[in-house]
Amino acid sequence: MEAVAGSGAQGGPAGGGKKKKTMKKLQRYWEGAPQPDPPAAASPKAKRRRNEKTRPRAGAKGSPEARKGLRVSGAAGRISGKRDPFPGAAPLPRHKVKKFQRGRKSQLAGASSRRLRDHLALLEQKVELAAQQAARMELLLPEEPGFLEGDPGEDTCTIAQADIAQAADIASATKHFELTLNQFGPYRMDYTRPGRHLLLGGRRGHVAALDWQTKSLLCEINVMETVTDVTWLHTETMFAVSQRRWLYVYDNQGVELNCLKRFNGVLRMEFLPYHFLLATASETGFLQYLDISVGTEVATICTRGGRLGVMGQNPANAIVHLGHSNGTVTLWSPNVKEPLVRMLCHQGGVRAVAVDSSGTYMATSGLDRKLRVYDLRAYQPLQSLVLPVGAGHLSFSQRGMLAAACGDVVQVYRDVPVQPPHKPYLSHTLPRAAHGLRFCPLEDVLGVGHGSGFTSLLVPGAGQANFDALENNPFRSRKQRQEWEVKALMEKIPSELITLDAGQLGRVDAITMEQKHQERVERLGFDPQATPAFQPRRKLKGRSSAGSLLRRKKKVANEEQRTKIRKSLEQQQAAEREPKAAPRAQRSALDRFRK
Amino acid sequence: MRVKVLSRNPDDYIRETKQDLQRVPRNYDPALHPFEVPREYMRALNATKLERVFAKPFLASLDGHRDGVNCMAKHPQSLSTVLSGACDGEVKIWNLTKRECIRTLQAHEGFVRGICTRFCGTSFFTVGDDKTVKHWKIDGPGYGREEEPLHTILGKTVYTGIDHHWKEAVFATCGHQVDIWDEQRTSPICSLTWGVDSISSVKFNPIETYLLGSCASDRNIVLYDMRQSTPLKKVILDMRTNTLCWNPMEAFIFTSANEDHNLYTFDMRFLESPVMVHIDHVSAVLDVDYSPTGKEFVSASFDKSIRIFPVDKGRSREVYHTKRMQHVITVKWTSDNKYILCGSDEMNIRLWKANASEKLGVLVPRERAAMNYNQKLKEKFQHHPQIKRIARHRHLPKAIYSQAKELRIMREARRRKELNRRKHSKPGSSPFVSEKKKHIVAVVK
Fold this sequence. Notes:
heterodimer; A: 595 residues; alpha+beta; four-stranded antiparallel beta sheet; 23% helix; B: 445 residues; 16% helix; 37% strand; WD_repeat_DCAF13/WDSOF1 (chain B)
């Protein structure tokens, strides 16, 4: 008490010593010199936090944070006498903002007009602000993704499903269940995009649609024909079933809506939700696209790839991946009659293909019992591992887990593109061999259809925790669904826009621009964008003699020439500096196909 | 073993009662929103199409005049009041909300050549073919009283236009010369002339209120400073300028409506070449008026249409026409930036929306948000060829369409000829002259 009184000698009111102690100003790291306050500053935790956080963008003088901060710090004499201990906007780690940043910042050379540059700078500012606001909003998301951690020395793959179900809450425990359907198996299956409904199709004709969370049956029919594949269409009111001869569409009451006789012998189907396209692969080697919103056949492509029993779609760009018996995987869009890409992935036939939700990685498995992961940006293999039996079915979850069904064993791997896993994350043995495998969207659930029914497995951490209700809302009401359907149909993407790069539409079409410019030059007879030739200004006192004019002209011309040469030299040097692709250490058999 | 499985409590996601709004949790993670660009593109395309579907700009026609409408004036304080003068000397005051005439007076014998309101909004001035300037009250006379002007000035020559100072009790008329009058006097304070000619319109600058611009029939635009007794400078163009209008936000900028189908936006400091040439009309442009924001202006033409131009664009963004509308003599942009009024030969005043597809009335917040979003999308994708084509398409009457086509062919032929001539002459002997400079004959100071 005495010491306090001594330090506050400038004459505080009597008895104010204690008050002064509580009023001590909080010093933040961004407020200039750090206070010699050893315990707080020296703690390693504080240090880590300091590294992690970036300063608020108050560096710019005109930014609102800076102004706000100034105002707050300047307002020492508030009515309450208190100061804001955290002036300015809350700091925002850069990596969090980065997730919401798209594309590259525009880089305009000095030649472009100032108005355009200012306009773009303003836009950039707004885009940056939007990204920051979105990153701040992440704090408000209500759910956390699931996880599974074993005890020290315990592998997670040894944990049985029953144990997980017992340890998890009651609601989650009900998500692990088994349907014993011995008569009509093996089963193919599919989930709707909000992950609420399940569709089962047994090879011997049994088709059932159900709300798997409440376990209420929507419909159950037997089509009295071989069923090769089933898939939901855009909502839970319609599904497509490929039968022995033709393709059928049923509604959720099991009433046949349509029989598409142009689609015969279909083996696999993929529904492209944003394009309202149903892509089918047939046993005769045809890839067909059906626009289900208007009922027209958009494209029929003869792939010349034999029986098409392996199919997958890239959810990021709606490209269909087909696996062939000669070990190649081909990528297709409905606009091109040839494959966009042909990749040799396996020795022996391809058994399964799956693409992750970001569209960056593709996993394939083949008859050579290998599971391979490819980078789809560079079409390069990343990982390869040998599975005992080889995976017959593959599926990526929303958060990047990979499930592989090897005979009657289902294994789930984590972070496959990053490192080759030596142990699965989870493993489960089924009563019979698996026939269909899908992760349920927005849930920690993996559905497996097999010879004697269907099994729903708990895979903690598989599903996206926080959904966007305008995109996929598992809790949507009937009205909301109808409204969503109208909106989705309004923004149906035409099939012409399916390309390898989904963002291509947002870029500048430089080729067309150049062509148009040339046409304009031809029409006008001169280049309106060309810089006018240098005209020396007229000077007085005899300095504008013909010789002097010529000299000045030459000087400018030489300077231009010099900058040109300098630029080209710089480019050359940069090209030389770039390391050339090193020759591979081991020559593989595939190298002969390299160009 | 530690385990957490995703399990959502439905209470957090489903509304409690039927009266509540549905809950819509959002997550802006780009991973959850694939096909961002193509979907936005489709939304922009839909928004552009809807804009064209909802483009119904015509609101009302005010009829009552018994001859062609020759001039109009906005009320400086009341948005709903507008004044119009006709070719038979009649002046009408209109109420726009009720869309009816509230007062009629026989102001002149012969044409009402010009009309302007005083800045206070209680009175207005008219000039007519009977060589008089009359000062009227906006309110009608009391019961049993006769309709009489406050003042009448008898001049020696016909006055062709009038404009009032924006802040002081001073007005300017034009005819054989530009006269500047004090309201209290019967003779002008000063008369300004530059050559012998008839001057068709005079306008006060709304910001630098001492400046005036006038256009004369010997093809020139003359600028004056009221504080000086001599004109400032003039620019001579290819053809006659009918009228001009000052930008209400930028003091130096004005736009002139020319007889050669074009409008020219000038910076009064650099009259050597206009800032922008606005090409789209197919006949003489008769009147022009700026929007109060100063970003756009509307022009009326002899080709029976009115067009809206952005100040910084050479082409119009909108064209309005009806089957019945004849040569449009006068046009005004209302002070709330929402409507356009045009008076035409066939005795009607028409009320248009300034933004053709705008929804009038109160907007629900969600509606407004959706509109803003659509507007931004349209801006973002405006350069895509399909969207551009839909946004630009306007139906034109056959006369205008074929005339525009003919003009285009003529322009192309002239360009080709010039190109050939240049090709076969000594390099540099026939230099290229830009469209902006082509129409300027001279600048005199």
